[in-house]
Amino acid sequence: MARGSGWLKRAVTGACVALLVVILGGCSFFGGGPQSVNHPAGSNMQTIWNLFVPIFWMSVVVFAIVQGVLLYSVIKFRRKPGSPEPYPTHGNTKLEITWTIIPALVLAVITVPTIATVTDFAKKPDTGITVQVVGHQWWWEFDYPGEQVVDADEMHVPIGVPVYVELRSDDVIHSFWIPKLAGKQDVVPNQHNHLWFTANELGTFRGQCAEFCGEQHANMAFTVVVQSQADYDAWLAHNKAPAVAIPSSNDLAMKGQQVFFTAGCVGCHTISGMEVNGVKALGDVGPNLTHVGSRTAIAGEVLPLTQENLAKWVHNPQAVKPGTLMPNLGLTQEQANQVAAFLESLK
Amino acid sequence: MAQVTTTQQGAQYRRSIIWEWITTVDHKKIGILYLFTSLFFFLIGGILAMMIRTQLIVPDNTFLGPATYNEVFTMHGTIMIFLAVMPLNAAFFNFLIPLQIGARDVAFPRLNAFSYWAFLFGGLLILSSFLFGAAPNAGWFGYANLTTLTYSPGINVDFWIFGLQILGIASVASALNFFVTIINMRAPGMRMMRMPVFTWMSLVTAVLLMLAIPSLTIGLVELTFDRYFGTLFFEPNAGASVVLWQHLFWIFGHPEVYIMVLPPFGMISEILPTFSRKPLFGYPFVVYSGIAIGFLSFGVWAHHMFAVGLGPVANSVFATTTMLIAIPTGVKIFNWLGTLWGGSIVIKTPLLFAAGFVGMFTIGGISGVMHASVPVDYWQTDSYFVVAHFHYVLFGGSLMAILGGIYYWYPKMFGRMMNDKLGKIHFWTVLIAFNMTFFPMHFLGIDGMPRRIYTYPDGMGWNFWNMEESIGAYFLGLSMLLFAYNFIHSLRSGEIAPADPWDGRTLEWSIPSPPPAYNFAVVPTVTSRDEFWEMKYGSNEQTADQKTNLNPTVEDERHIHLPPPSYFPLIAAGGLLGMGAGMVMHGDGMAVSWYIFGAGILVLAFGLFGWSFEPNH
Ligand SMILES: [Cu+2]
Ligand SMILES: [Cu+2]
Hints:
The complex is a heterodimer of chains A (347) and B (617).
Chain A: H1 2-26, H2 43-76, H3 93-122, E1 129-136, E2 139-144, E3 149-152, E4 154-158, E5 162-169, E6 174-178, E7 182-187, E8 193-198, E9 203-208, E10 221-227, H4 229-240, H5 251-262, E11 270-276, E12 279-282, E13 297-298, E14 303-304, H6 307-315, H7 317-320, H8 333-345
Parallel strand pairs in A: 1-5, 4-10
Antiparallel strand pairs in A: 1-2, 2-3, 5-8, 6-7, 9-10, 11-12, 13-14
Chain B: H1 6-22, H2 27-55, H3 66-101, H4 109-128, H5 156-184, H6 197-229, H7 243-276, H8 283-296, H9 312-340, H10 349-372, H11 374-380, H12 384-414, H13 420-438, H14 440-446, H15 463-493, H16 531-537, H17 541-547, H18 568-587, H19 593-613
The structure holds copper (II) ion (2 copies).
The site of one copper (II) ion has 5 residues of chain B, from helix 7.
């Protein structure tokens, strides 16, 4: 008996050490990607992660107990030649009560901070900025109420300031998710959802739609740019201004402008403050292009913004992003290059 | 007879075999039909899974385009849930419940045949969408308003709606049948608290089905009206709240999870005692916790909707109820461990799968508790973390147990054993490949990979695990082929099975393998739980007399009244198929659609009419 329990003790310690090594070693096999949640850069995700870690360790204990007992029983109580018939136990009420109450207590311990955090997340912060996010099939629009700034693909926020995000959908349900900064919140038509977080780190953070929303759900990503307050203010001021005039020295862009204002683009896109032969670009089906040249990527992040990529896009958007709601407009390659030069100059 | 030539005789024989299966109302044959059909659908679902993993094996892959990928993942989910796991469970209900309760058939044998045919036709209707290049593509829970005509103009969604409606009818009819069978058809002395746990869990499942499916039906009817008759249930521009769909769907959808996993709980509760050679630990606790799970499962649906914006109060309430449901589930796991503890465990394939179930299901249960914590769910929902979770519950859980169940009851069904050595290889390869495929999905969830994306860019840190998972999935596919080989090969060449190959405890083992049409030569009088074990080894005085007469025989089978075969259930189900197909064609604007729909109604009416007036002696 004594020898038997010594063996057991050693086996259990060994298994626990092995499990720890696997878990800690395993941690080096993930994390560190642009959307990894385990090094949060925003208050909301930090709170979630802080709640998750203790739950995780409790889970490890439950996991170890169940798997340990399972393996131990199957190995230890294996039928061997000459094994006696087991004693036909029917149960044990005390044990049943114990293993009902202990898990209930563990779950209660998880439920209390859960409810506290849910309530906290639902409050609106007293200070900070508000951004209205509109989900479209399959790109994101960012409006800054009161600032007359309308942007797509890129959301700019100042560091250390609560950001209150109002979520609106223009079509179907999407889900707004910036893994490193905050948990998700669905973007539901006809419903006013919101979410808030404070970014704690400068830099860019990738976000992505998380609710299946149709053909191009996979390419509905965006970037959050966390800036110092001064940089943020400068960005706002710049984006508030109407589109820059095209320098007449830029012949290609001048031609591109002509194409843009005649090829039907204006029915879907806005370029504020620009008028060509009495035509204005005031469409609101696609992204606002007033400052498109200053973005880092376009069309839900399928392409990084370069002049070649812009040409590729306007020449044949359906080839780049099959199913996108921007139709092929039959531009020649030459026209596409011209339009790309024009768009690129809209800094 | 003497005049008939042998070839004629052969042809006649073959025709009569097919005829026999088409018109059968024997619960065992229907169970076997369910088994083969759902394994076939499972194969298709598995091929779709391989396509998914192939598309995701490297970033920016172009194996499948977005439109096809969305069809493939939608069909994978729909098939695995409605056409594989649910009907696999139904195969066991059919085959086993009458045998376990000492009955000669189910309460309504022709309704039972109707359920099967409706299931088959509903499944074929959904699958036929592939032939028209219009497979459903809005995800298996088809969130409105993506499913409205504005956003899903094709007939893809129509196939999904009418396929599911027919499957729903099949499920409710079958649930009703088993509910009545279990309540009314038990052998004398088979009190409720003597019933085998599989039968108990099936009873709870039947109740869940009858109460949950109508909610889905209503949602689908509203969607049909929106798509066909211009109503505005899910039209936000007319002021509708699209969240209505989610409530209707998940009030069905969460109980559905238990519909898929309670029968496997029952199978485990049969397999573990048999191979531990001791009774189920805490029988009443296992039964009551199953009932508790059934009740609670109707009060947790909104945990699928934590990120929808229901508000902090609703989210807190549903977090709490979800935590609560974990308690009875835990109780079951501990009782299974208690059953193994101190046993004399015979290591055979069914036992390995049952033990594997306990281990893998526990992992799925634990991650389920993580999602129950709402803020944590804000991160995990709709990410690969959740994909890992439900595959641990449905593959590591339900399917592992079902595979164990197949190995365990195969000898009873077909009178032959499956090869145990191959079975063990199958188990170990499934266990490894399953974990290779699904465990790293937790890591991808931590790395922020959303579910249902057909492609992902390079540089996200997702490449390695996706590649590794795809390799795991191929390995898993190969391992399942081994199972297919063992299953098919053993049908003809397996070792002949005795009536009681595992030294079983419940009544099905007291009759020959495969059982005769009338099941029990003499309907047993039950005196205890684990009745057959008591007959064999009990010291109980009442059983002493049965002990001497373990396998009674009948002098004249013709004295046993059995329900006669009937083709009316098939005709009635065919009518449903016509109606469904007509509706789908109408969605496509075909002129003949109303005629086909109308013909479907007439065929259905004719089937039901014939069925009602058919003499049943
Ligand atoms: Cu989406
Ligand atoms: Cu659920």
